[in-house]
Automatic annotation (TrEMBL):
<dbReference type="InterPro" id="IPR002575">
    <property type="entry name" value="Aminoglycoside_PTrfase"/>
</dbReference>
<feature type="domain" description="Aminoglycoside phosphotransferase">
    <location>
        <begin position="132"/>
        <end position="337"/>
    </location>
</feature>
<dbReference type="InterPro" id="IPR011009">
    <property type="entry name" value="Kinase-like_dom_sf"/>
</dbReference>
<dbReference type="InterPro" id="IPR051678">
    <property type="entry name" value="AGP_Transferase"/>
</dbReference>
<dbReference type="Pfam" id="PF01636">
    <property type="entry name" value="APH"/>
</dbReference>
<protein>
    <submittedName>
        <fullName>Predicted protein</fullName>
    </submittedName>
</protein>
């Protein structure tokens, strides 16, 4: 069954994931009811000002409702008992404090101890885009487990986790949480590290890669439980589903890269056919996923027999906190971390890419990536350097499979980039239009494609 049902009165269709969830009017909408004839919320591309005004109102309502569920006294007592030092808990939400207390998925309440130490109470935001509670609880446990793994087995700087709890009636604080150190430092994505800090940052990043390489896993998975660091299914949002009773269905863990990729792509094809993803470009997305499954994925996974390695799956740069001297203070936001193939785990983090060039479809490496690879090479980490040089396959694949951005321009560029990265020299100069025409012919007898064409022509 769909993860979300369309909330339009009388509609029985599945809600479109991500952009079908509107926090402005608190709706899940199917492809039809997302259309302008039915859905009247401001579109940020058309009326940016009105969109942001409405968003702000919705966010205030969301945070007010979330805070009303938190038992602040129980939270203060818990923190004070753990540290045996008195503290105060002061939630804040205003224009000025917003960037420091919330991100897209989480909200932080600072806990101030009388001796000057500060912790944060990290809780999951709740709005129409929020996945089911069972998934949210697994994310809390997995993130806490990942922090425990990193702090106990590696030298990678991370905040210390002092306590955690899932969202359940036995949690006296009322909302599932992670209680952790607050780190000082600013996000790397806010810093210009082109000159002074570049070498220092890349060198510390090389330390992180070299450290993660020392910790192989037998499976592609997420860490499951902070108590024993056991492993469990993959929690990436694009891979989750629900059965007919609304119970969470998850993929993995996987013993092989081929099994993992095949399973993720088939799931995505299901979502496209069910009208839950890529509703703006369903035929393109179907052809791309089908073709990758049939003709690309074996080439990518043939040298990926394992072992597998932990990766921060949201490495855009705001997850790294640095001081004024570009020393990494800590790496945060590990909620989506999972183990994966070496080529994906050790491809350059996204913040080293020239995003404009990359999104235009070019596979040319950014000078920062080249410099990073050469630092790894100089240290004798030739294998890691090779993964950085060859990183485009992993980057493109991640942006082709299950990465429905809602922008129909993205998929052709990522997909043609993927083909050029996996099969260099083959069909050189082929355009997206030419490839698509060929794929339509290749799959003309495919029943699912025909049904989709019919659905899209209505
Ligand atoms: Zn709306
Ligand atoms: Zn509907």
């Amino acid at each position: 069954m769909p993860l979300f049902k369309c909330t339009f009165l009388g509609c029985l269709c599945p809600g479109v994931r991500r952009h079908g969830s509107c926090s402005l009017c608190n709706s899940h909408l199917c492809a039809k009811h997302l259309g302008q004839d039915f859905h009247r919320c401001p579109d940020w591309r058309v009326n940016e000002r009105e969109y942001w005004l409405k968003s702000k109102e919705a966010e205030i309502a969301e945070i007010t409702a979330l805070l009303s569920k938190v038992n602040l006294r129980a939270l203060r007592d818990r923190a004070a008992a753990l540290r045996k030092v008195d503290c105060t808990v002061t939630p804040s939400y205003d224009h000025q404090s917003r960037p420091s207390v919330m991100g897209g998925m989480n909200y932080h309440i600072p806990i101030y101890f009388v001796d000057g130490v500060t912790w944060i109470y990290r809780i999951r935001r709740r709005n129409m885009t929020t996945t089911p509670l069972a998934h949210q609880n697994r994310l809390i446990l997995s993130e806490a487990a990942t922090y425990k793994f990193l702090s106990s087995r590696t030298q990678i700087p991370v905040p210390k986790v002092h306590d955690y709890s899932i969202d359940s009636p036995s949690n006296p604080v009322g909302v599932g949480y992670i209680l952790m150190d607050k780190l000082e430092g600013k996000p790397l994505s806010n810093c210009d590290f082109k000159k002074a800090g570049k070498e220092r940052i890349l060198s510390q990043l090389a330390d992180v890669f070299a450290d993660l390489k020392q910790h192989p896993f037998n499976e592609i998975c997420c860490l499951l439980d902070p108590d024993d660091l056991s492993v469990g299914p993959v929690l990436d949002e694009s891979t989750i589903d629900a059965d007919e009773n609304g119970n969470l269905l998850l993929l993995g863990p996987f013993k092989s890269a081929l099994e993992y990729r095949t399973s993720s792509i088939k799931h995505q094809i299901d979502l496209i056919l069910r009208g839950e993803s890529y509703t703006n470009n369903a035929i393109d997305a179907y052809l791309v996923h089908r073709f990758i499954l049939d003709s690309v994925i074996e080439s990518i996974t043939q040298n990926e027999q394992g072992p597998f390695f932990l990766k921060h799956m949201d490495d855009k740069g705001d997850h790294i906190l640095v001081d004024d001297e570009f020393r990494i203070v800590g790496i945060i936001d590990w909620e989506w971390a999972q183990t994966t193939t070496q080529s994906e785990a050790f491809a350059a983090p996204l913040y080293l890419l020239d995003v404009g060039l990359y999104y235009s479809g070019s596979n040319k490496l950014n000078p920062k990536e080249v410099e990073f690879a050469s630092i790894l090479k100089k240290r004798g980490e030739v294998g890691l350097a090779e993964h950085v040089y060859g990183g485009r396959v992993a980057h493109r694949l991640a942006h082709c499979v299950g990465a429905d951005s809602g922008d129909i321009e993205d998929l052709p560029n990522h997909f043609m980039g993927l083909l050029r990265a996996v099969f260099p020299g083959r069909n050189e100069g082929e355009t997206w239009e030419q490839w698509r025409e060929g794929a339509m012919m290749m799959y003309e007898k495919d029943e699912d494609l025909q049904n989709l064409i019919q659905r899209c022509s209505k």
